[in-house]
Amino acid sequence: MAERKPNVTQVDPVWSHIREEAKAAVRDEPLLGGFIHSGLLHHATFERALAYRFSLKLASGEMSEQILREIADEAHAEDPELGQAARADAVAVYDRDPACHRFLQPVLFFKGYQAVQAYRIGHWLWKHDRRDLAYFVQMRVSEVFGVDIHPNARVGKGIMIDHAHSIVIGETAVVGDNVSMLHSVTLGGTGKEDGDRHPKIGNGVLIGAGAKILGNIKVGDCSRIAAGSVVLHEVPKNTTVAGVPAKVIGEAGCAQPALNMDQLIDDGI
Known about the structure:
Keywords: Acyltransferase, Amino-acid biosynthesis, Repeat, Transferase. It holds the Pfam family Hexapep. One of its GO terms (molecular function) is serine O-acetyltransferase activity. This is Serine acetyltransferase. By secondary structure, the chain is an alpha/beta fold. The protein folds into two domains: 13-146, Orthogonal Bundle (serine acetyltransferase, domain 1), CATH 1.10.3130; 153-268, 3 Solenoid (UDP N-Acetylglucosamine Acyltransferase, domain 1), CATH 2.160.10. The protein has nine helices and 15 strands. A hairpin with a 4-residue loop joins strand 14 and strand 15 (247-251). Helix 1 (13-28) packs antiparallel against helix 2 (33-41) and helix 3 (46-58) runs antiparallel to helix 4.
């Protein structure tokens, strides 16, 4: 009889790794056993764990954990891309954040990661014309995590938001895949105009702390925005911009700045 091959759809290396880390964490710190079991080990799938975390963090006197859990479970069941994006984000944080040593850290402890996963549920609600629920999720994410992402904004996979204090991403903003940003970043408009009014961030972009990118402008793939910059004009791909207002000061310095996370500007530039 031929040996039966494993079903590739049942292989989930990220979730398997998180569970092994969780078991080790319980052995190392038994006082966190209840917290880790309820947050991770109690759940059969990564999606169920994410839904539990979503409901636990965003519940309030206005909306119960049970209702939020049902919303998140429905979203994950209907759209498998939510779970795939969450896995890509977890890998991104692990790879790029030097303070992250285990995959379970962003899921349990990092508010930037948790805020992005909650935004993804809000975006799913928005796409299904459940606008008021989407606004509720946006409100609670802002209140709990200090991260304000409009549910109509489009955010790609492999996102890493380090520290995540005071992040603002406007209604018509687009963020590509494999983008890294630090705290106090704003992707905003320039006034009270309606319509398409927010930045379009390409793939592989690194956005430094405190940077403000304003207006319906394009930031090219694999570019770097220096910390504290105010960007008002289009940024060519593979370049570094800095200053107030920001100007091109040279090339990006590497092929993938969002992955490399090098924020130093060469004195020779």
